[in-house]
Amino acid sequence: MGSEVEQELDDRWWLGLRKRALESVDVHEFVVVLNFAGGSVLSIEAAATVRAVSAPGTETAVVTRMADGTVWTSEVLMSLVGQQLLVSVGFKDGALRLVFESGLMLDVPHDEQYEAWQLTGVSGRRWVSLPGGGPATFPGGPS
C-alpha cells in the first residue's frame, strides 16, 4: 500500500509521500496549495473531490474551478491538515490520488484546459498533470 520512495510503474508513479503529514492548506485566487512534511508541495488548479475509501459514489467537491478561473475550496479539505498519507499516486492518464490515514481519499482528475495539479516531491522531482491528460515529470536535484 503506497511507497515511501518515488517509483515509476507501468501505469502510475508512487509519489513517495507515504507517512508524510499534511501541514497546511493555502487557498489563493487561482490555486490551492497543500504543504506536506518534508517540504513536498502540491498545487491544485482544477476540480478535486474527497470521499471515504469505503464509500464509492459519495464524493464531496473540495476544490471547484469557477468560470473565471478562480478556485473555491471546502472545509473538508482543511480538515485533512495533520493527517498522514497512506498512498500517493500519480496516474499516467494525469489523475492524482491521495489516501489519508482517516480513510479519506482525495482525487484530482486531469483537466482538458488546465494543468490540474503539480507536485514537487521530497527529492525535488516535479510532476505536472498536463492539459488534456498525461503527466510530465522533471528530475530533482541541484539547479
UniProtKB/TrEMBL annotation:
<dbReference type="InterPro" id="IPR046179">
    <property type="entry name" value="DUF6188"/>
</dbReference>
<dbReference type="Pfam" id="PF19686">
    <property type="entry name" value="DUF6188"/>
</dbReference>
<protein>
    <submittedName>
        <fullName>DUF6188 family protein</fullName>
    </submittedName>
</protein>
